[in-house]
Structures are given as C-alpha cells and as structure tokens.
Amino acid sequence: MRPASLSTLFSCRCLRGIAALLFCGLWLTAQADEIDIDASAKDFDRYFRMLMREKDIPGGAYVIVDGDRVVALSTYGVRIKGKSDKVDRNTVFRLASVSKTFAGSMAAVLEHEKKFGWTDRVVRYVPELSFKTPSLSRQLQVQHLLSHSSGLTPNAYDNYLEDNKPLSKILPKFANIDPRCTPGKCYGYQNVLFSLIQDVIYKATGVPYERQLKERFFIPLKMEDASVGWESFMAADNRAAPHVQTGRGWRPVKVEKEYYLAAPAAGVNASISDMAQWLKAQMGYYPKVLSPEVIEDITTERVETQRHMRHRIWRDYLSHAGYGLGWRLYTIGNDRIIYHGGWVAGFRAAVAYSEKQKIGIAILMNAESRIIADLTANFVIEITGNGTLSTAMANK
Asked: Under 8 Å CB-to-CB from 365, ≥6 apart: which residues?
C-alpha cells in the first residue's frame, strides 16, 4: 500500500459527513489494492538469488512486468555448468509446456477469424483419430483438445513421445482406449491430443503451425529469439544447455527431441526478453496481436481442475482452479491468476499474471528444479495481498 499524500489527507479532513465517508472510504479501498511493485521486485530478486544459490542451479532468468512496463529483468549463472558463457537477456531456453499458451492463443486468433469453430469435431481435421468406441471420438471437439477435457486418462501415450515417436505413429494407439467420461465433462492433462491442434490449424488455413506463430506472434511482438522445434533450438548460438540432478550435482545432458514432436504442447523456445513481450500481449497491451475478445476466450474456464487446489504451495490460497484454452486459471481472493508451468528434460519454465493487477512474471531455468514453483507461487501470493516475499524468505 502506498502512503497517503498530504493533499489527499487534507481533503479527507476538510470534507464533512457522508461526503467525507464516501470519498475517504473509496480512496482507502483503492489504496489498499495498490502494490508497490518496485519494492516487490527487489524482494523477489533477493529471493530468486537465494534459492538459485541454495540449490546450485546452473542458470536462469526472470522478468516482472507491470502493465506494459518491464519492472525488472535479470539473469543468473551460466548457460552450461563448467563453462564461462553467462546467461543473458537473449539466452534461449526450452519453454516446455508453457508452449501451450502459444497454441491456445494462436488457435483462438484463428477461431475468431472464423477459420474453424471450437465445436468442430476433431475427426473433421484428423480423420485417423478413433477411440475404442468410435462414437466417443466423434464427440471430441477442437476446444476439448486445448482444455484437456477429452476425458482420457492423463498423459495418454506420453511415453511414446519420450521415445521420440512422431504423432502419426502414436495416433493408432488411441483405438485401444476410451475416455473415462464424455468429452468436455472432466479434466485429464494431455500432450499428444493437445498437439493435434496443429493439424486443425494446417487443414483450416493451409499454413503450418510454426509459420503461424512466427508471422502472427514472434515478428509483430518483436520476440527476436523465439522459435519452434529442435532444429531451431540447436541453431541458436546463445542457448542454454539442459541439466539433470545427479549424486554429484547438476550435470549437462544432450538436448533431446522428445516432446519437440508435439510442438503445440512443448515445442517453443524463447529468451526472457521474449517472455516480457508475451506477458504484455497476454495482459492486453498488444490488441492488434491478441484482441480483448481473444484474451477473454482463452481465459474462460472450460473445465474444473480441483485437484490442483491440493498442491502444497497453492492449497492455502486457492478458492477455485480450472483450465481455459492453453492456460491454468487460479482464483485467489477477488483476483484470478492466469498461469502455466513447463517441465521437460533439463528445463523448467513458468509464466503467470494477475488478471486484476495486470502484473506478471516469467521464469526460465536450465535445470529440473522444483524451486520454480516456490518462486512463482510466492510472488503471486505477494502481489495478490495474501502474503509477503520477506515471510517466504524467512521460512527458508
């Protein structure tokens, strides 16, 4: 809460009766909602560096955005452990499942342009998809792909993605299983089915998914380091190496193609500078790229995800949890947090923003560390007025 100005206090003292109560009450309510984001950013920087040192994370970066202003953008450590190349604002990381925010947004832009409809049947675009009970596969709609509401058991056939199998080899497997519920009625996180949105986009527009992202998002938003796919990541000179935990600490490993074959689910690469632009766009500051109507659509809940309210960090604060189109939707008090995390071999990523405060954060790491959840959640808890970063630091 920012301190009252002398002129405002004087005005409150000079007014009389009901007018004074109304003016001062409304003013104090507005002040209570204000966040000293610059002070919070300084606290976050200390918290970030404390946890990165404590867990010996090789490298990472974060950005905090308030409206269309970058409040803080900072980097830490090295691109590869044992080497001297530092992580900087243009170092490229894998975004893992944060890629889903791009897929949901891209699909929504095209749906609003009437290229296809959310209620279109997926088999219209991917006729080779069939469940064990074919009538159930015919009920699967495009919106069910992006909201994880196909009804299938979570992460169906992800093991084949981890074995670097292309989607064309995985799709026939779905003929062996049926959804647990009617499509649209229950939540089950997917990567393979989610990625079928690229087939929908290509069949509906004639333009490949990767080109759509480049032309509709990366170029107009000046996301100069962003790309899609393994080849593009490996072609970047300034890229972070993935690291996994061993008995002797973090060890750099080979960049695997796993999950890159499911590009909408986990195939985007970006720097922290790119993520600053992505946050601004998602919060409504590039309406020619993402219109208010598109943003409202992707952040409209399609399915409840109540089990996420039991997460050790969020459980004391969430009153509701759901999923939109490529975004998690968490209710905290009178605010909503629009959020997604990502985790793929050797990398972690997170992006979140307050719908009410229009304050957002993105964090990228070149190590599979759970501290990214602590960092993201505790920042969100502070900006929504439900706790402080100083308390989080004191409890470490």
From this structure: 57, 59, 60, 93, 347, 348, 349, 372
Residue listed under structure tokens 């719908």: 355
Q: Is 215 exposed, middle or buried (0-12, 13-18, 19+ CB in 10 A)?
A: exposed
Sign of CA dihedral 169, 170, 173, 174: negative
* Six token digits for residue 394: 């004191």
Global pTM reads 0.91
**Residue-wise pLDDT tens digits, 197-221:** 999 999 999 999 999 999 999 999 9
- List the beta strands (DSSP E) in the chain: 59-66, 69-77, 93-94, 227-228, 243-246, 249-252, 268-270, 303-304, 318-323, 328-332, 335-344, 347-354, 359-365
Q: In what order do the strands lie in the sheet with 59-66?
A: 69-77, 59-66, 359-365, 347-354, 335-344, 328-332, 318-323, 303-304
What lies within 8 Å, CB to CB, of 20 at 6+ separation is: 12
* Residues written for the chain: 396
